[in-house]
Amino acid sequence: MSYVDEVIERVTRENSNEPEFLQAVNEVLESLRPVIEANEAKFKRDALLERLVNPERQFKFRVPWVDDKGNVQVNTGYRVQFNSAIGPYKGGIRLHPSVNIGIIKFLGFEQIFKNSLTGLPIGGGKGGSDFDPKGKSDREVMAFCQSFMTELSKYIGPDQDVPAGDIGTGAREIGYMFGQYKRIRGQFEGVLTGKGLNYGGSLARTEATGYGLLYITEEMLKSHNIDISGKTAVVSGSGNVAIYAIEKAHQLGAKVLTASDSTGWVYDPDGIDVEALKEIKEVNRARLTEYKKYRPNSEYHEGKGVWQIKADIALPCATQNELDIEDAKTLVANGVIAVAEGANMPTTEEATKYLIENGIFFLPGKAANAGGVATSALEMSQNSERRSWSFEKVDSNLQNIMATLYHNIDDAAKRYGFEGNYVVGANIAGFEKVVDAMNAQGIV
Ligand code: NDP
Ligand code: 2IT
């Protein structure tokens, strides 16, 4: 049995109740086969893959807090510090009822390669809780965030582990967490990214993931002599990533026809009104059913459905496994040209395979949504030099990072005979830097 197969078998046996983690590991290790096979004896002797798939450490803790009725609620908090070969652990905090250790491990594992692809010195980590911020008062959210950080503050620091936002964690939550960290540790330092602009945040971090997604999509299309201007797009989600993806798509001359949340989706034939979306989601924290009030010509539908709408580009920006094989078939039948993942692992393994086999340009999340964490690393640089850069400076850095990233994954795919397969390219290019650093640092 080959070394890759041996490790896949062992990981599958040891993590059988963590399907998302297994899905992520499987995809990466399958892509790495040519690299591993070229160095099989050395990697096996050093147990390189076993070390890669096992987090350096993981924390699980109780998060008690008091709700507005005076009742004590208890949630579970997690932080997985996956790999620090190339820099301090870096990755978001997800607050969603679906969170469990397997979800956090899948996200932390992906983050290793994504962070490597940014070209910046950040290792991989992720955290979160099964707490649901939806429908909670600001005070309840604060009580949760303070309790969560009271425990998390023991394990993080600006040169150790730097969390940020993810699903359910936005500017409000980061603010409460930062305040509590500062109170406990007595240090005003860049321990979180996505901070408010008046206390160490970076301009363009809010926009970065969505903007970066469009910059890399534009670069990829350009290298295939396709102009993004004039194209139509379907987007899922209506959170941080989706909103700024839609905004940048419109700035580049494309037209986005859809957005969604966990209860329904909207189709707007005139192009999604981003300002309306911001007001509904960022200001009012409301449901997408509100959208029709702003745009009477639009349609609202319950459930899932954005991938049925015919468009040139599909941008899944909500959550994992939201685009399955049936959706992939519909997209291909409707003539989609490109699929770029704003979310982490939104496309199932089967759907990804189908899209690639049908010649669709497919950009995996670890490449396509890396603009968010890259800009977080720029926020860390600004915190270190105690200066704030202009929006233009951060944004032009982001554009360069995404264009370079595209060419790096494209080159890696070509080097191993997988031209145009950006899944293989991203996994190999991300892995190369991490494995080099791991080898240099000995058996740790
Ligand atoms: P937000 O919480 O801001 O928005 C999430 C959006 O996805 C909401 O519209 C939400 O709907 C929808 N959604 C969440 N869970 C589900 C679900 N189980 N089923 C259907 N819809 C769902 O999160 P972000 O925009 O920050 O994150 C979106 C994705 O992008 C995630 O995969 C995240 O890991 C990834 N990502 C985020 C980055 C960032 O910088 N924020 C960076 C890189 C990747 P509802 O409001 O109804 O729950
Ligand atoms: O998935 C991700 O890359 C994020 N949620 C952003 C992480 C970060 O540290 O900015």
Essential attributes:
444 residues; 13 strands; binds NADPH dihydro-nicotinamide-adenine-dinucleotide phosphate; 17 helices; single chain; 5-stranded mixed sheet; 5-stranded parallel sheet; alpha/beta; binds (2Z)-2-iminopentanedioic acid
What features would you describe in this structure?
49% of the residues lie in helices and 15% in strands. It contains 17 helices and 13 strands. The protein has a 5-stranded mixed β-sheet with strand order 1-2-4-3-5. The longest helix has 25 residues. It is globular. It starts with a helix and ends with a helix. The mean pLDDT is 98. It binds NADPH dihydro-nicotinamide-adenine-dinucleotide phosphate and (2Z)-2-iminopentanedioic acid (2IT). (2Z)-2-iminopentanedioic acid (2IT) binds next to strand 3 and helix 15.
Radius of gyration, in Å, reads: 21 Å
Structural class: alpha/beta
Number of helices: 17
Number of DSSP-assigned strands = 13
> What sort of overall outline do the alpha carbons produce when their principal axes are compared?
globular
Strand order of the largest sheet: 1-2-4-3-5
